[in-house]
Structure formats: structure tokens, C-alpha cells
Design brief:
Elements lengths: L10 H24 L15 H10 L11 E2 L10 E4 L4 E3 L7 E7 L4 H17 L4 E7 L7 H8 L8 E2 L4 H8 L8 E5 L5 E6 L7 H12 L3
Parallel strand pairs: 4-5, 5-6
Antiparallel strand pairs: 1-8, 2-3, 2-6, 4-7, 7-8
Helix pairs in contact: 1-5, 2-6
Length: 222
């Protein structure tokens, strides 16, 4: 009798397991850095997030319509040390945007909702970008090549600066903090480098609803 052929493990599954193990290891390291489990997010390091908390309170009643899924924080996270790269590979943190309100968005070319919302993010930067506000859209494709640039060129992005993180460090950091369950993931960060609120999933960020909420959050900082 012929013995049944043994099933050969699929290479793709092995690669996925390796990738998940790597992400889990990175998540443990990030958890240690950011103080996961502290009663006030990770603000136990003594950083004051009073400005962003005030902004969150002002944004809450305006989180409606196109931004109804936006969740203003009640326990702000210190996001100032989150790391990503410029198009030429230079490391940046949100500390480099100190004094500005930042809409931090994580996206990938393979993520259909990300691709759909990108034009709105570009228009928002065109409408509100300046000394006090900036959209920071960070691509998290692994081994991205020229795919992100080609996509942004194809849709005619005019106002966004290109940022990336092909090592997934930023995504793992936010996921470990409970702020990125998938893509797209967006965090509004105040001029003090602290979280104002988080959005899970896409939004029409240039809509009247979104701009009214953002302006209310910024006005509360004065």
C-alpha cells in the first residue's frame, strides 16, 4: 500500500509566522519604552499633556458626521518620541513638529481605505497646513520600492510631504499602545506632543465636519 504523501508546509505561512513573531518581540520592547498599563496612558514619565487634554475636551462635541468615529482621549499618551523617516531615510520624531498640531496618519499602498482617503488628507493639508498645523502621512509598506511615490504621483498629491517606515516600528508602537488596530490609523497630536484623539479607519478629513473639529481643538490651545 502506498503511504499518503506528507503535506509540505506552505512557505507563505512560515513567513507569516516569522513576521508575527518579529512584531510580537518588537511590541514587547515598545511596551517597555512607553509604559503600557499606566493609569494615565504613558504619561507617568512626568510629561504634562494638559494642552492636548484641553483640546480633546473641545473636540469631543464636534466629533460628528464624517468624523463621528474620532475618539477624543481622556488619558493622553505622550507621542513625541514616535519615530519614522523622511523620503531620504532621515529619522524624524513628532518632537520635530513641536508647537504644531499634527494629524499623524499611517497608510499602505495595499490598503484600499487608505488609498481612498489620501486625496482628502492632501486637500486638508492644502486648506489648513501651515505654522500651526500639519498632516504627517507615513507609509508603512514593507520593502516599498517606488510604490508609495508612484501612487502619490498618480493621484496628484500636491501638499503632503512623503514619510515612511518600512520596518513597521511606528505601527507596532501605536498598536502596542492600543492606537492602531489596523490601517488606516490616525492620531491627532497637540503642540505639546501628546495625543488629542484617535481615529480607527478612514475619514473624509477635508470635510466641513473634520475641519470644524480640528479648528475647535486648536482654538482650545490658546
Amino acid at each position: 500500500m502506498t503511504e499518503p504523501a506528507k503535506e509540505t508546509p506552505r512557505r507563505g505561512n512560515g513567513r507569516k509566522l516569522i513576521a508575527l513573531a518579529a512584531l510580537a518581540g518588537a511590541a514587547i520592547g515598545v511596551a517597555a519604552i512607553y509604559g503600557i498599563g499606566m493609569p494615565d496612558g504613558n504619561s507617568g514619565n512626568g510629561k504634562s499633556c494638559a494642552v492636548s487634554l484641553k483640546s480633546a475636551q473641545a473636540a469631543k462635541p464636534l466629533a460628528t458626521g464624517e468624523v463621528a468615529a474620532f475618539l477624543p482621549t481622556t488619558k493622553p499618551l505622550d507621542a513625541s518620541e514616535l519615530v519614522f523617516n523622511t523620503a531620504d531615510g532621515t529619522a524624524k520624531t513628532l518632537n520635530d513638529f513641536a508647537g504644531k498640531t499634527v494629524l499623524l496618519n499611517l497608510w499602505a499602498t495595499w490598503c484600499a481605505p487608505c488609498r481612498k482617503e489620501m486625496p482628502a488628507l492632501d486637500r486638508l493639508q492644502g486648506a489648513m497646513g501651515g505654522e500651526d498645523f500639519q498632516v504627517v502621512a507615513v507609509n508603512v509598506d514593507v520593502r516599498p520600492g517606488d510604490r508609495p511615490k508612484k501612487f502619490l504621483d498618480e493621484i496628484g498629491v500636491e501638499h503632503l510631504t512623503r514619510y515612511g517606515d518600512d520596518k513597521l516600528g511606528l505601527f507596532v508602537a501605536l498598536r502596542s499602545l492600543g492606537r492602531a488596530t489596523g490601517l488606516p490609523a490616525t492620531m491627532l497630536v497637540g503642540p505639546d506632543g501628546c495625543e488629542i484623539g484617535t481615529m480607527y479607519g478612514p475619514a473624509e478629513w477635508d470635510s466641513d465636519d473634520a475641519q470644524a473639529m480640528l479648528k475647535a481643538a486648536m482654538t482650545a490651545q490658546n
